[in-house]
């Protein structure tokens, strides 16, 4: 933001802005291409994997006869 740069006394040229935008483009592309394992911190990555496993288990429960109560209405 130019107002913030002015208050801090920082200069910012159009060339520096273009360089920053190029870097952002590369980073956005990298995040689309790289696997989750490389783009998330380990804690967040494992939390996402855990959540995905729980969701798959819930889906399996819906289809499994082991979890059905005889005479109960199906959801």
3D structure, described in words:
By secondary structure, the chain is mainly alpha-helical. It folds into two domains: 33 residues, no CATH class; 26 residues. Helix content is 71%, strand content 0%. The chain is elongated, with a radius of gyration of 24 Å.
Give the ordered list of helices and strands. HHHH
- Enumerate the spans where pLDDT stays under 50 for 5 or more consecutive residues: none
Structural class: mainly alpha
Distance between the termini: 52 Å
**Total tally of structural domains:** 2
Secondary structure: helix percent = over 70%
- Percentage of residues in strands: under 5%
The total count of strands amounts to 0
Number of helices: 4
Q: C-alpha Rg, in Å? A: 24 Å
Main sheet makeup = none
Principal-axes geometry comes out as elongated
Mean pLDDT: 89
Give the secondary structure arrangement, pairings included.
Blueprint: H1 2-8, H2 14-33, H3 36-39, H4 42-63
Q: Brief description of this entry?
A:
With 75 residues, the protein is mainly α. Helix content is 71%, strand content 0%.
